[in-house]
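Posting for a labmate who doesn't have an account.
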Amino acid sequence: MIVHARRSKAAISLTPLIDVVFILLIFFMLVSNLQSTNRIDLRVSDRDSAPPQAQDRALLVTVHREALQLDGQPVSLAQLREQVVLQPQRRVALEPAEGVSLQRVVRILDQLRGAGASRVSFLEATTEE
């Protein structure tokens, strides 16, 4: 007598696969940033361009490692903000000194934008030859 043993088919459960896909979905949802990223629109001014009109002359802000200068005069950040609040339509030209960290320049830029400055540009660093 020949007995044929019936093999039962091994059923593959999809539950673990669904769990892994669900975990991956949650991971990518948490990692991705759904808000728009903060952008900094940069305009680099040319020092050799035509001189602006007196009323349209930009406020020149020189950013040093530990200090700020407004048109060559030392100022505090509060004084700089006051000047920008008084004249928010006036252009502001930022000139980072050599060795100033990008984080410091971005902090100053944020303060200027918070004070109402909408026309901020950067000056190219001069190279001594």
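Reply:
Got it, the structure tokens are right above this. The mean pLDDT is 78.
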